[in-house]
Amino acid sequence: MLNENELSVRNNAGYVLSNFCEKILYSPEEEKYRKIYLHDPDVIERLLPASGAMECLFEIGFIEDGDCLCLPKTTSLTKLKTLQKLLSSVITLKSNSTHFDKGHTASGSTELSIKLSKENEFFTKIVEQFHSVMRYEDQDLQEKAKKVIPLVQLEIKTMERLRKFQKNVLLNKKTESYSTLKEDLVNSTDLFLMELLHWFKYDFFQWVDSPLCISCSKECSFESVRSTSDPKCSRIEVHRCNTCKATTEFPRYIDPEMLLTSRCGRCGEWANLFTLLCRSLNYDARLVYDVTDHLWTEIWSVTENRWIHVDPCENIIDQPLMYERGWNKKLSYIIAYSRDEVQDVTWRYTQNQIDVMTRRKMCSEEELLHLLQTLNRVRQSSIGYSVTRKQYVTKRRFRELIEMLHFPNIQNNYSTIDDTNNYRERTTGSYAWRMARGEISQHNIYKGYTWDISKYEKKSEWQEGVNYTEGGIFHKTEEDWKMVYIARAPGAEYGYVRWSFEVQSSDLCIKTFNLEAKTTVFHGANITWEIEGFFPSMKEKDATSLIIPISTCNKFITDKLKGAKKVNVTVKLSGGKNSLAWQHAQLFRESINNIKEPSMTIVIKLDNHGN
Question: Which of 311, 318, 340, 344 is catalytic?
Answer without folding.
Answer: 311
